[in-house]
Amino acid sequence: MMTPRLQKGLTLIELTLVITVILVLMSISVYSTGAYTDWQKGRAASETLRKVYVAQRLYLADKPNTVVANLTSDDLLPYLLDSSDEFPTIEDLDGNPLTISVSVTPPVALSSGGSLYDPSGSTTDSLWDIGEY
Questions:
Q1: What residues contact 38, with CB distance under 8 A and at least 6 apart?
Q2: 123 to 126, 131, 132: CA distances (angstroms)
Q3: The dihedral formed by the CA atoms of 67, 59, 114 and 125, expressed in degrees to the nearest 10
Q4: Which is it for strands 108-110 and 90-91: parallel, antiparallel or unpaired?
Q5: pLDDT (tens place) for every residue of the chain, 133 residues total
Q6: CA-to-CA distance for 116 and 38, rounded, in angstroms?
Q7: pTM of the full structure
Q8: Are 107 and 99 spatial neighbours (Cβ–Cβ below 8 Å)?
Q9: Does residue 61 lie in a domain region?
Q10: Residue 96 domain flag
Q11: Which of 33, 57, 66, 106 is most buried per CB count within 10 Å?
Q12: Is residue 129 domain-resident?
């Protein structure tokens, strides 16, 4: 009587299952990396807006009769703590430059059309704004 030979290797179903699991894991990692990158951009924008807000408060402490609506970025430049020669800038999620409006308090990010830019949609999440005080 002959003994059956054992075959080594993977079946087509097993191979398909392994490839499917790998693709699902790769999709999850790509999605989470994109969300993390967006969060980093929002966090960097809020930190920049906080620096401008501190400069705004310092300027108004030195010149208490100044109306906030009349403030310009040139007024605040000497009050920025990083002592840069240029006013800080921020970008939207697509890399387009945004304008920081210093004529309101707290300062806000404006898109090229002049509308408020806050893709998070919340004023209390500390992303794209400095939150409510």
A1: 93, 119
A2: 7, 5, 6
A3: -110
A4: unpaired
A5: 666 666 777 788 989 999 999 999 998 888 877 788 888 888 889 899 999 999 999 999 999 999 999 999 999 999 988 766 789 999 998 889 999 999 998 899 998 888 888 888 777 777 787 765 4
A6: 18
A7: 0.73
A8: no
A9: yes
A10: yes
A11: 106
A12: no
Do 80 and 55 meet the contact criterion of CB atoms below 8 Å apart? yes
| Residue recorded with tokens 């009769």 | 65
Burial of residue 97 (number of CB atoms within 10 Å: 0-12, 13-18, 19+) = exposed
DSSP assignment of 84-125 = -SS---EE-TTS-EEEEE-SSSS-EEE-TTS-B--TT--SSS
In a domain? residue 126 = no
Tokens, residue 65 = 């009769």
